[in-house]
Design brief:
The protein is mostly helical and 113 residues long. The chain is built from four helices and no strands.
């Protein structure tokens, strides 16, 4: 089970690498998306139980071995917020491209004005 958490950390590291090392705005936005997906996957894995059942309670069922519904609710909210953030970043990148004609942030820094 610990290998899955290591893979989540690796996925987050790939996204962080894209954000810190790439100079193209679109690649940076994709890196932010990868980091969001890694965090969402981590939250879902926290609530996972082996052989668990859905968290729907009925009067004749025992409460044991249900998966935790809280991480699922958090991730559902985070997906909506992440989508709106991605759309906002893409809109800003399009406006920057219209003004400067490039997605390269090193050229944008030189074209101040």
């Amino acid at each position: 089970m610990i290998t899955v958490y290591i893979l989540c950390l690796t996925l987050f590291s790939v996204g962080l690498y894209c954000v810190l090392r790439k100079r193209n705005l679109i690649k940076i936005i994709i890196g932010i998306g990868i980091m969001e997906y890694a965090v969402n996957l981590f939250f879902i894995l926290i609530g996972y139980k082996a052989q668990g059942r859905s968290p729907i309670f009925a009067a004749d069922q025992a409460v044991k071995n249900m998966v935790d519904p809280l991480p699922q609710a958090i991730v559902s909210t985070a997906i909506v917020i992440g989508l709106s953030l991605t759309l906002l970043l893409v809109a800003i990148a399009i406006r920057i491209y219209e003004k400067y004609g490039t997605f390269d942030i090193t050229k944008i820094n030189r074209l101040k004005g």
